[in-house]
């Protein structure tokens, strides 16, 4: 297939909404000195009764407004406090201070909304990420979180741009579902039944016929199976939506509610699948680097600062920008599970029994420590592990012929990233109806509940592949943040659904 | 504010994934006659043992492959049935048939996946939309649903493109929530408790401390309140995600799970809000018209065909393309609720008592029949109704000063579209803490559960506005489909959560 961009015919730009004020990001790049401008934003600091640093969220940088304090009423000056919303009218002038090119010489200052400095939780000092997580509704007002969520925004848009340029159809797969796509995983139940006193059948079981959907339903763990239905019609589709896991995992890499990107492609074999995944990741990271240079520079400095508290040996060899460029400039290493196990067996931490889980035999699932060794120590770049043992992977993956020792593998591929672990999980799908049915029977998935899915193998079945990208892990990697709760606006984790 | 497009610096295109075959959409526009090509796709029809119409989902149009049936094995010819997947290698040649510019003179035909014509539900004839809804997992393979979901895809991408060009931050607000944003509405409960035997407190009530999140949680009905937190930090944000209503409404315009777009803007007053909403709707419809001309032409014909079965008086005056252009070319009519009520009181259907709900007094909510009269009969274009009575709108809307008769209204705005009714609902928000608290007390919303939301009014409160667009209603309007279940891949409605 030679992809092409068929949307080029649309060249219109969106109309501009006319407002009284100009956004600070635009002013910071302006050169029309002497022009009268209006700024609206929130006070970050107010120094010497004279210099207001104002931020309106459009940029991580503030604009400085210089107040003529002798001609400004005392009661206004008093109310220019951190967090207050102000309107400043004045002249845009070249700045004499360092660190800024422009500033506003204020002729009028008014308070739009006060902020009591005794009560406002965000003070002009460094707050810990833990503290900011407690006030997640206000943390967007800090430089760090402004940068994180601007990068998140850029990555999200880049995902859409990439797939649209490649003529994929964006498909909204259902959130509430009666089926468990992975045939595993702990799921959230969705119901409108009265939990205190649900309707029951004669045998005492809950009568889900009375529930909203007339049956028991859950929150989706993956849009893949529905995505396959789309791929068998449109050729190439992708989803980008929320998915859910009711796992009691309190780690820095797990969320109960997270966003996932799941493309699914007809006529793609495993190699094509890997090519696509690698191209996608490089494209979106490049997009973030190029459209958010200030934010990523800020996050690079933040990370360097954070790492100062670590022993030198534990600090990253590369800074954030170097790390992102490194991913762009190198091919991901493609290794079979079988080869990876050989590497791990012979590795120093295995020989010296430093791994918590020692690698003795072929067949075991790899642990985080093994993935990190492969990615961070052995190959020192993103790794695509393929052809995993059949028994540790999902029923829908295409089965390879048994190898010389009679071992069964499937055409799976996981992409492992430094510091993150699994960024992508995917596979070529089993397109043969009989093999798929046999595997479903082995693992105990009732075929009669999956007739709609099996129809894709009955009517014009074709080789096809797909994968899922954990979006928050992508944001985590690109921003250099270390806790996944800091890269989604309002994290949902065990015992926590605040805001 | 003068908006600007700051992403222009990114000019890279996504890399092309090399495949053996070329997608049909590309071949249909190709002119390199004589070139050898490979097509992979599904058989739509096979005529005279010679002409295969193949579709791969990239286009609503098929490509014709001409088989040299005398030199093709009989057992292959037999398996070229509707729905089967085939690979055809051959020469791209200029077509002599009408309705197509190119065709493929096949030199090799192979079957990738069979389709038993006795069992395949989609036959080359017209199926009813009701029947296709029963086999929603296969309906994407028809021309109508290919066109509908291509237009849906274009509209979704255009939404992102519009907001990105205007420097809005895409924000993923939570799906699982402990709060009810509208202060009303029937919600789906989310739980991991054992429904048969949930943990109970001493007084017999369910003990939600034992639930996954340590409290009772629901599926979100709106991301607005969290969006407001974002607007108070980034200035302009938007959400685009699934929302849920557990309403037992079995209509052609309601879904239990639907996608909503919710922008929220600091420093926007109601007029700015209306300007933005109108600009957004025009932009995305224009994008669909310009990037999906064949799909919309197809849907126009489909609608004309469907309307033939109606009495002439009930048919649309404008065809689909004319209707879409009409929206682009006209300003939306902006009318206050108070003026609209006067128009309705004096209207013929009210005078002749043809309305089911007669308009006598100021204060009642408008019904669908009234909205349709205003939009379809009186103004004959999209209408923005503003300044509704306070009592019929949400607590968070900004209160106007009482009018001369002492009537209380709020700065609400609903955008009504012909054939659809409410496409957009929005308002300026009440930014004054005391007024907001008073209103919450009146309608019985406990302030202590909303402290995080109230903080936006405590610390640097500013005038701000936002609105919600029901995405499926937008798709309904743009595609000319008449049942909302036909514009989302797998509709969720009372007693229905199939696939």
Automatic annotation (TrEMBL), chains A, B:
User: Which key words tag this protein in UniProt?
Assistant: Aminoacyl-tRNA synthetase, ATP-binding, Cytoplasm, Ligase, Nucleotide-binding, Protein biosynthesis
* GO-annotated biological processes: asparaginyl-tRNA aminoacylation
Reaction(s) this enzyme catalyzes, per UniProt: tRNA(Asn) + L-asparagine + ATP = L-asparaginyl-tRNA(Asn) + AMP + diphosphate + H(+)
The keyword Aminoacyl-tRNA synthetase appears for this protein: yes
Specify the domain of life of the species encoding this protein. Bacteria
Q: Which GO terms describe its molecular function?
A: asparagine-tRNA ligase activity; ATP binding; nucleic acid binding
GO cellular component terms, alphabetically, are: cytoplasm
Write down the Pfam families for this protein, in alphabetical order. tRNA-synt_2, tRNA_anti-codon
InterPro entries, per the entry:
Aa-tRNA-synt_II, aa-tRNA-synth_II, aa-tRNA-synth_II/BPL/LPL, Asn-tRNA-ligase, Asp/Asn-tRNA-synth_IIb, NA-bd_OB-fold, NA-bd_OB_tRNA
List the PROSITE patterns: AA_TRNA_LIGASE_II
Q: Which ranges carry the Aminoacyl-transfer RNA synthetases class-II family profile domain? A: 149-489
Enzyme Commission numbers on file:
6.1.1.22
Under the heading Gene3D superfamilies, the entry gives: Bira Bifunctional Protein, Domain 2, Nucleic acid-binding proteins
The protein's location, in the record's own words, is: Cytoplasm
Family to which this protein belongs: Belongs to the class-II aminoacyl-tRNA synthetase family.
> What is annotated about its quaternary structure and interactions?
Homodimer.
Q: What is this protein called?
A: Asparagine--tRNA ligase
Q: What is the lineage of its organism?
A: Bacteria, Pseudomonadati, Bacteroidota, Sphingobacteriia, Sphingobacteriales
């Amino acid at each position: 297939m030679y992809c092409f961009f068929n949307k080029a015919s649309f060249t219109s730009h969106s109309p501009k909404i006319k407002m009284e004020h100009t956004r600070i990001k635009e002013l910071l790049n302006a050169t029309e000195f002497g022009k009268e401008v209006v700024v609206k934003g929130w006070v970050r600091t107010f120094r010497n009764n004279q210099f207001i640093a104002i931020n309106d969220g459009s940029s991580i940088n503030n604009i400085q407004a210089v107040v003529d304090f002798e001609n400004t009423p005392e009661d206004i000056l008093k109310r220019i406090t951190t967090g207050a919303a102000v309107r400043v009218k004045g002249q845009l002038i070249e700045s004499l201070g360092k660190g800024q090119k422009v500033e506003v010489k204020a002729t009028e200052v008014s308070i739009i909304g006060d902020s009591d400095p005794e009560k406002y939780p965000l003070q002009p000092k460094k707050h810990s990420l833990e503290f900011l997580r407690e006030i997640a509704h206000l943390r967007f007002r800090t430089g760090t979180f402004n940068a994180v969520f601007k990068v998140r925004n850029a990555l999200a848009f880049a995902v859409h741009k990439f797939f649209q340029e490649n003529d994929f159809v964006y498909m909204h797969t259902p959130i509430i579902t009666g089926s468990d796509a992975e045939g595993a995983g702990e799921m959230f139940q969705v119901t409108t039944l009265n939990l205190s006193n649900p309707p029951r059948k004669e045998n005492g079981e809950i009568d889900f016929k009375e529930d909203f959907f007339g049956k028991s339903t859950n929150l989706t763990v993956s849009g893949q199976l529905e995505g396959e239905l789309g791929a068998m019609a449109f050729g190439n589709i992708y989803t980008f939506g929320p998915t859910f896991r009711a796992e009691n995992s309190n780690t820095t890499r797990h969320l109960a509610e997270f966003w996932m990107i799941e493309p699914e492609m007809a006529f793609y074999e495993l190699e094509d699948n890997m090519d696509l995944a690698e191209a996608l990741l490089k494209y979106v990271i490049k997009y973030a680097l190029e459209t958010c240079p200030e934010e990523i520079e800020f996050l690079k400095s933040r990370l360097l600062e954070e790492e100062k508290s670590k022993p030198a040996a534990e600090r990253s060899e590369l800074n954030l920008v170097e790390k992102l460029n490194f991913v762009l400039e190198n091919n991901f290493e493609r290794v079979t599970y079988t080869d990876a196990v050989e590497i791990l067996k012979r590795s120093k931490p295995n020989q010296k029994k430093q791994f918590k889980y020692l690698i003795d035999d072929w067949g075991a699932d790899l642990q985080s420590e093994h993935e990190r060794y492969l990615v961070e120590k052995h190959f020192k770049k993103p790794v695509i592990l393929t052809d995993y043992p059949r028994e540790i992977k999902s029923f829908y993956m295409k089965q390879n012929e048994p190898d010389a020792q009679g071992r069964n593998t499937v055409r799976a591929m996981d992409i492992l990233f430094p510091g993150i672990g699994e960024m992508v999980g995917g596979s070529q799908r089993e397109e043969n109806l009989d093999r798929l049915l046999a595997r479903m029977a082995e693992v105990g998935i009732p075929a009669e509940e999956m007739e709609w899915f099996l129809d894709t193998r009955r009517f014009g079945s074709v080789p096809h592949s797909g994968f899922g990208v954990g979006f928050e892990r992508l944001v985590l990697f690109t921003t250099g943040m270390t806790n996944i709760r800091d890269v989604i606006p309002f994290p949902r984790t065990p015992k926590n659904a605040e805001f």
